[in-house]
Amino acid sequence: MAHLNVDVVATDRKIWSGEARQVSAPAADGEIGILAGHSPLLAVLRPGALRITPADGVVVRATVSGGFISVDDNQVTVVADDVEVERDGSGAGTSQR
């Protein structure tokens, strides 16, 4: 099964990187879902929830304040102005500005 290579970066640092089965992001014109084999895409992000389903199945959730998402040849890059990541489901997150 093909996977996505995903990088989530803030303007000054890498936030998360790894293989994923699916990415959902808040594009400016609506929620977008990305699976392996997705056609090339460049979209503006609005504030909202970013969800990444890694190959191990433990969903990574983040809140982005805006930015953009790029998809090309199973490489997904999310560049966000501000990102708050929740990794363990407990509500504890890390804010990256």
Secondary structure topology:
Elements (H helix, E strand, L loop, with lengths): L3 E7 L3 E14 L2 E6 L5 E5 L2 E7 L5 E5 L2 E6 L2 E6 L2 E4 L6 E4 L1
Parallel strand pairs: 1-8
Antiparallel strand pairs: 1-2, 2-3, 2-5, 4-7, 5-6, 6-9, 7-8, 9-10
For the secondary structure, the number of strands is 10
How would you name the CATH homologous superfamily?
F0F1 ATP synthase delta/epsilon subunit, N-terminal
| CATH class annotation | Mainly Beta
Please trace the helix and strand order, writing H or E for each element.
Answer: EEEEEEEEEE
Helix content: under 10%
What's the Cα radius of gyration?
12 Å
**Which fold name fills CATH's third level, the topology?**
ATP Synthase, domain 1
Query: How many separate structural domains?
Result: 1
Domain ATP synthase F1 complex delta/epsilon subunit N-terminal: 4-82
Subunit structure: F-type ATPases have 2 components, CF(1) - the catalytic core - and CF(0) - the membrane proton channel. CF(1) has five subunits: alpha(3), beta(3), gamma(1), delta(1), epsilon(1). CF(0) has three main subunits: a, b and c.
InterPro entries: ATP_synth_F1_dsu/esu, ATP_synth_F1_dsu/esu_N, ATPsynth_dsu/esu_N
Keywords: ATP synthesis, Cell membrane, CF(1), Hydrogen ion transport, Ion transport, Membrane, Transport
